[in-house]
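Quick one: structure tokens for this chain, please?
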Amino acid sequence: MPVNLSPPMQMVSICWWCLAARSHRVLRLEECPYFDSLAEQRLINQAISARRIVIGICLGSQLIGEALGAKVRQSPEKEIGHYPITLTEAGKQNPLLAHFGSPLVVGHWHNDMPGLTDQSVVLATSEGCPRQIVQYGNAVYGFQCHMEFTAEAVEGLIQHSEQELAAAKREALYSLERRNARVELSGDERETVALPRPAG
């Protein structure tokens, strides 16, 4: 959303934050001049106060948490691709999610995850990210995952993210090498070899 665009809240019945910033994290204005994170958070708080339906996707979910005072956290694993998410017990009881079934394969393109408030409830997790779907209020949800991905959308992301994908590939190979790089010493005794992190 451009910095100078502030839709009047009385005109908004459903607010969707479907943001896919190149860095996939909450940005400072000096890092990304056309995106004002604090302005977005103020708008989110206005929508929540006005009892609007607020849905945040990817960066949008992180902004909801930030707006409510819960800082973004780095996800245990970077996820790019299609991976299954699993509904928690709370997710299975949620009437808006229960019909999806579990596990459910969805799209991912993130390295971070939304923060949690004292009142928030995690509704879905994945192997690499424990906060895939978070409910912040009766009508406030954050989706770190992407249920809206289409083949065309993914193709566009790939075309515009060559450097990020190359870096993710190097990081994945590094993690795999660390996992497999062990030197046999004697019997069952093993020593992990320290590998230099990939550059870039």
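The domain at 11-149 is CATH 3.40.50.880 (Rossmann fold).
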